[in-house]
């Protein structure tokens, strides 16, 4: 595996369906509460800490944090062939390293070959960027590493990270030296650990911000990331914190999220959500109903991750995410355990955050609270390069800026730009392929890495999505869309590109080609989405039996269904694509 946030399954896991997944006609697979079982679930506080599978055994024998020393002192000197298999396929993840897919292996072999047969002797390296906050100096370092050690590759992820490819283990000591020299790193960028903390891309900048979450993100990062106490979780743990009313951190699909809200008596703080996640069995996060003051965020975060560590299900890895525990317990019990066992006092009740009034991707030109401007730009499907990063650093510094942000939507937000130079900057950005005023199709499209690098992928994604976007921009030119149409393209069932929460979500699979062979294609999900200015609350998409589209026919399908939506939508009610997709007859969605 390379870019996916989903662990590569063993052959036994590949053959066994999700224990709690079920097929719903309107929403695809979802988490449902587990049936009572006589077998232990591997909950440390209930069943003890005896390992119940091989992954739990090696994590207890030698945690992932310890492998850094071996990488620097043994493997970097001995090369790929010197790497211990358990380190390679397990502990390396704790330092942001996955082996990437060997070129030339088609998607039909993804589920049949063992990891060592799929993998190349090169790595994907995930650079951790908590809160998405970068300086131009840091951007130059990442760009330089990309050009020198990663064949000029770079991808923006929907977790605010930057990922590089073609990295050799021999080069890791120098790469770490350069990253850490400017305050960056790869610690716990992957693995059964607290992953990167999503933060509002306009933290401390936006004129309409409720509060700046940067101090809370920094406190969590400094206190807990790299702490052995939280370096052996049942599975990955995803966090998000925002102080912006657009709710711009996809909080509904994180294990823990803090969303800014104004309490009528206690002032501005956060609404606490837990238990979100997608993959092959979606579960949207639930509100605990609590109000968390800014000074208590780190303490509450520690309580939630501690519950996951102590009560999470470790016996079966396909049921080990926090969402399964939350589905079984419910929000009320989860809150009670958090308050009584981990915090020692009750949190105040709190109101929900109101519906967002602005788009959460921050694309376009906006006013900062200090009178300068920030510009959100769209690199197509997150694909960039080291060269582009260096060019962007040059552009920003010429304009007097030294800051930028990554976003959870594979976008970039450029800060501190002179308000009277905005149009000149927008023109320069266009020349770099970074559009501040993209089409609503380009703006809403994201894609995972796909078969190009990922060992779990079945089909190609980045180029397929890029070609579809360019074709759709030509075909839909002059047609006014009422809002961005989110098109999420995923190379396998694991939903790294969030297919269940897109207007049009595409799950990669191989389809019959009519001549006895197979061709790359997608199962289609329609009408999903997270809370936004166009949507009151999050919901997962609809699947229509038999609705599949080939990769070569993707643009044709999207054009057809979007035009049908525009023809049939209730304009008086300002009906969105998602609303129409859920009410439309199946024939209209074909």
From TrEMBL:
Classify the source by domain of life: Bacteria
> In its keyword annotation, does this UniProt entry include Oxidoreductase?
yes
Q: What is its EC number?
A: 1.8.7.1
Catalytic activity as recorded in UniProt: hydrogen sulfide + 6 oxidized [2Fe-2S]-[ferredoxin] + 3 H2O = sulfite + 6 reduced [2Fe-2S]-[ferredoxin] + 7 H(+)
> Where in the sequence does UniProt note compositional bias of the Low complexity kind?
1-12
> What are the protein's UniProt keywords?
4Fe-4S, Heme, Iron, Iron-sulfur, Metal-binding, Oxidoreductase, Thioether bond
GO molecular function annotations of the record: 4 iron, 4 sulfur cluster binding; heme binding; metal ion binding; sulfite reductase (ferredoxin) activity
Would the keyword Oxidoreductase be found if you checked this record's keyword annotation?
yes
Which segments cross the bilayer?
A: none
What are the Nitrite/Sulfite reductase ferredoxin-like domain coordinates in residue numbering?
117-180, 366-431
- Provide the top EC class: oxidoreductase
Q: Which cofactor does it need?
A: [4Fe-4S] cluster
Pfam families referenced in this protein's UniProt entry, alphabetically: NIR_SIR, NIR_SIR_ferr
Ranges for region Disordered: 1-61
Function (record text): Catalyzes the reduction of sulfite to sulfide, a step in the biosynthesis of sulfur-containing amino acids and cofactors.
Describe the family membership recorded for this protein in Swiss-Prot or TrEMBL: Belongs to the nitrite and sulfite reductase 4Fe-4S domain family.
Q: What is this protein called?
A: assimilatory sulfite reductase (ferredoxin)
Q: Which organism is it from?
A: Agromyces protaetiae
- Taxonomic path: Bacteria, Bacillati, Actinomycetota, Actinomycetes, Micrococcales
């Amino acid at each position: 595996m390379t870019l996916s946030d989903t662990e590569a399954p063993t052959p036994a896991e590949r053959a066994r369906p999700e224990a709690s997944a079920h097929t719903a006609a309107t929403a695809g697979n979802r988490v449902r509460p587990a049936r009572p079982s006589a077998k232990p679930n591997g909950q440390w506080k209930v069943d003890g800490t005896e390992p119940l599978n091989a992954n739990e055994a090696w994590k207890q024998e030698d945690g992932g944090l310890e492998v850094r020393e071996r990488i620097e002192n043994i493997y970097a000197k001995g090369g790929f062939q010197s790497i211990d298999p358990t380190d390679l396929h397990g502990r390396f993840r704790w330092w942001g390293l996955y082996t990437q897919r060997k070129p030339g292996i088609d998607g039909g072999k993804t589920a049949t070959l063992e990891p060592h047969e799929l993998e190349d002797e090169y790595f994907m390296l995930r650079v951790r960027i908590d809160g998405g906050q970068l300086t131009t100096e840091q951007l130059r370092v990442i760009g330089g590493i990309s050009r020198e050690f990663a064949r000029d590759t770079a991808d923006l992820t929907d977790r605010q990270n930057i990922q590089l490819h073609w990295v050799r283990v021999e080069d890791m000591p120098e790469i770490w030296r350069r990253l850490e020299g400017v305050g960056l790193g790869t610690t716990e960028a992957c693995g059964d650990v607290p992953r990167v903390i999503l933060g509002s891309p306009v933290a401390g900048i936006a004129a309409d911000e409720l509060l700046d979450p940067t101090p809370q993100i920094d406190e969590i990062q400094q206190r807990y990331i790299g702490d052995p106490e939280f370096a052996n979780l049942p599975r990955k743990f995803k966090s998000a914190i925002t102080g912006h009313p657009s709710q711009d951190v996809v909080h509904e699909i994180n294990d823990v999220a803090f969303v800014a809200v104004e309490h009528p008596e206690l002032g501005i703080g956060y609404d606490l959500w837990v238990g979100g996640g997608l993959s092959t069995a979606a579960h949207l996060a639930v509100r605990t109903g609590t109000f968390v003051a800014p000074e208590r965020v780190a303490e509450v975060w520690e309580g939630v991750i501690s519950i996951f560590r102590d009560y999470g299900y470790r016996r079966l890895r396909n049921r080990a995410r926090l969402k399964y525990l939350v589905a079984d317990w419910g929000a009320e019990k989860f809150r009670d355990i958090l308050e009584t066992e981990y915090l020692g006092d009750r949190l105040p009740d709190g109101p929900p955050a109101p519906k967002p009034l602005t788009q959460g991707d921050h694309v376009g030109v906006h006013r900062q609270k200090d009178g300068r401007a920030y510009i959100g730009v769209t690199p197509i499907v997150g694909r960039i390069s080291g060269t582009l990063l260096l060019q962007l650093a040059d552009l920003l510094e010429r304009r007097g800026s030294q800051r930028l942000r990554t976003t959870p939507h594979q976008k970039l937000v450029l800060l501190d730009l002179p308000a009277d130079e905005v149009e000149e900057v927008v023109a320069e950005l266009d020349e770099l392929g970074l559009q501040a005023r993209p089409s609503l199709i380009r703006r809403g499209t994201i894609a995972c890495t796909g078969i190009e690098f990922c060992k779990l992928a079945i089909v190609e994604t980045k180029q397929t999505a890029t070609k579809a976007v360019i074709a759709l921009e030509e075909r839909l030119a002059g047609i006014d869309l009422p809002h961005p149409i989110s098109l999420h393209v995923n190379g396998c069932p694991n939903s790294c590109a969030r297919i269940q929460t897109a207007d049009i979500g595409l799950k990669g699979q191989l389809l019959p080609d009519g001549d006895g062979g197979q061709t790359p294609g997608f199962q289609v999900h329609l009408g999903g989405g997270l809370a936004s200015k166009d949507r009151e609350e999050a919901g997962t998409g609809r699947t229509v039996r038999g609705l599949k589209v080939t990769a070569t026919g993707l643009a044709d399908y999207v054009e057809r269904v979007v035009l049908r939506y525009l023809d049939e939508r209730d304009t008086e009610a300002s009906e969105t694509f998602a609303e129409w997709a859920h009410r439309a007859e199946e024939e209209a969605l074909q």
